[in-house]
Specification:
The chain is built from 6 helices and 2 strands. It is mainly alpha-helical. The protein has a two-stranded antiparallel sheet with strand order 1-2. Helix 1 packs across helix 3 and helix 3 crosses helix 4.
């Protein structure tokens, strides 16, 4: 199938498919007319990459996952290790985001939001100390 059909079936924009090819994440066969020619297996790999990216895996991590996906002799422990590492990273980010939200919530609550120039939000943002 051509790139348009592969795009439609995979849900990835053609531009993204071309990008993944440029960086070596995907490869396409070429038809006799020189156009890209994708198989159903290629579409499955595209969906695999798309789902991996949506779960927060980087391009390089997707490369590792694809390598494991294509290796029928792989050990599931290798896949689990990558997923556990990503999960720990997401958990760290959630803690950071929660701290940011809590700090901003305190600043917003402390501001009267009226016509006075005094603003605890501005004061809090200009503070040289990071609030914990």
């Amino acid at each position: 199938m051509n790139i348009g059909a592969a795009s439609e079936k995979s849900g990835l924009p053609a531009k993204t498919i071309r990008y993944y090819e440029d960086i070596g994440l995907l490869t396409a066969d070429r038809a006799s007319n020189g156009y890209r020619d994708y198989s159903i297996a290629d579409v499955h790999r595209m969906r695999f990459i798309q789902r991996s990216r949506h779960l927060g895996f980087s391009v390089e991590e997707c490369r590792q996952l694809l390598s494991l996906y294509n290796d029928k002799e792989r050990e599931s422990a290798d896949v689990k290790a990558l997923a556990k590492t990503k999960l720990a990273e997401i958990d760290r980010k959630l803690v950071e985001l929660t701290e940011l939200r809590d700090t901003l919530r305190i600043l917003v609550r402390s501001c009267q939001g009226d016509s006075r120039p005094d603003c605890p939000i501005i004061e809090g943002l200009s503070s040289s100390q990071r609030k914990q």
